Amino acid sequence: MSLDQPGTRPDEALRAELAAEMDAVNAVIRERMASEHAPRIPEVTAHLVEAGGKRLRPLLTLGAARICGYQGRHHVDLAATVEFIHTATLLHDDVVDESARRRGRPTANLLWDNKSSVLVGDYLFARAFQLMVRTGSLRVLGILSDAAARIAEGEVLQLTAARNLATDADTYLKVVRGKTATLFAAACEAGGAIAAAPDEVVEGLRVYGDGLGIAFQMVDDFLDYGGAGDGIGKNIGDDFRERKLTLPVIRAVAAADAEERAFWTRVIEKGDQHDGDLEQAMALMVRHGALEATRADALAWADRARIALRPVPAHPLRDILHDLADYVVARVI
Amino acid sequence: MSLDQPGTRPDEALRAELAAEMDAVNAVIRERMASEHAPRIPEVTAHLVEAGGKRLRPLLTLGAARICGYQGRHHVDLAATVEFIHTATLLHDDVVDESARRRGRPTANLLWDNKSSVLVGDYLFARAFQLMVRTGSLRVLGILSDAAARIAEGEVLQLTAARNLATDADTYLKVVRGKTATLFAAACEAGGAIAAAPDEVVEGLRVYGDGLGIAFQMVDDFLDYGGAGDGIGKNIGDDFRERKLTLPVIRAVAAADAEERAFWTRVIEKGDQHDGDLEQAMALMVRHGALEATRADALAWADRARIALRPVPAHPLRDILHDLADYVVARVI
Lengths: 333, 333
Fold this sequence. Notes:
Two copies of one chain form a homodimer. Chain A is mainly alpha-helical. The first copy, chain A, has one domain (10-330): Orthogonal Bundle (Farnesyl Diphosphate Synthase), CATH 1.10.600.10. Helices cover 73% and strands 1% of the residues of chain A. Chain A has 16 helices and two strands. Chain A has helices at residues 10-17, 19-33, 40-51, 56-67, 74-97, 108-111, 114-135, 138-161, 169-194, 199-226, 238-241, 247-254, 258-269, 277-287, 290-308, 316-330; strands at 101-102, 105-106. In chain A, a hairpin with a 2-residue loop joins strand 1 (101-102) and strand 2 (105-106). In chain A, helix 5 runs parallel beside helix 8 and helix 12 (247-254) packs across helix 15. Chains A and B meet through helix 5, helix 7 and helix 8 of A and helix 5, helix 7 and helix 8 of B.
């Protein structure tokens, strides 16, 4: 596939460019997800592997390493590590959120039980660290263990922020970093670090991943109130029904008068929702410019991602990363 | 406290000898259990720290390092790492077992919720890996990431083995290694490895920890059917009521005739238990020598632990480790 082909989606272009290396990553994932002793583990992990997913995070690691001229083989283990951490997080998230579906399939906690999801998630975390040790790079181990701690911190913060109108934009940003941006940032940073790229390049890759992840999550949160359902994602109002404190709600609450505040307290904090409440919520968001502000924030984070690529060496894959930052916000332009 | 003082318990002697270093370990634990961003984390971890616990695993790490003549400071971080992995495992265990009490206090999953226990456990795992990276030793990182994977594997195996009469002594041993012996072994091995002790010494320490952990767990499982309640541990019959496939049950089932097998199927697999069933179970164990066989196995593993210490350099702390292997089985002699 030519990179110049008009209409090529940048995530697909990235996948096409890195197809051979991603095959190697997928082989490592299959091999290391098995377990000699506990038959439940391959059952659960096979379910996850079959469900697929976009594998965007390992692609970022491979891409960053290639852009920085890496010639070794450790980036394959590293990309698999990143995907393992992501998958372990999803398993635990589904327990925490009591989710029933993920990527269009029943979740592991529904098919087996919460116990299996917790313990198989722990297994994948441990396998991730084993793989990282194989790279022999203490720098990379530092990046990804720091990321794992920040991810867990963000998830815990989300628990206490949930359904709490006192949640502000700062807390929202910390939660979004924890649940999305930190692993995007670490995936990019680790790819540069394994290639021993200069510090400003590694830092540029980190800031790129951070901006990309935040923009991606903000677009998602915007579309839950503002977009047309695209048939593959969630439907309008899912976050509202789950009473999530996403940025559109936070902005509307910040601008609310007493009567509006009573509305938000009822529908979000108390969960007492009736017909017409979603429409009322969206009307309040429009009145206070909350959706427009969320959209503008998403665009600004995508900008920051693109700018961060400046010190990164010229490379066709760098152009794709640049386009990817455009692409994640294209749904709201 | 003199080591020669008659009646000194070896675990207390170990604690007394290593008091200054354990203070440093406890300071690291307190410092690293905090979280800047998520207030729920220090709440949960403070609850765990206050509950105390024997901290035997970090003592083994400190002791092994000292015996091997280690002069650096990384053993303190390493000992804290071992305790973090242990604490994370306990948090997740309590979710999996739906436990209400741990160390005489309500469990975190009861005081907060399962979500907090899962996510704070993840946070502690990540903090453990961060601390390990600080030691700069890839060998130690390998030992403890392998251990973490085996622990999770053992826990998953225990899930599928639970309440299943097909569980045999081999599976039991794998489960016991996963839930207890692997971390004891890794705690000892890592202490030797950080001191760069010769391979046969590091291996001796690993086998010692493995034998100690297995003996400890077998004694526990024996006492659940055979010992007098000691006021601090569990009561006779707890494992029976929870329908656990511990070694005394496995040995009795292996020797059961058709009628006895029907009994075990009813009480363990179906969980249909009545007055007198515990007494009947204990009578069957005595008839088939199941308790005696469990006791003999525990003593053999303690022997193996002591023998494994032979290549380890002479040191007062080595003598304490030797006594500790006697001590864990003293309750069944």
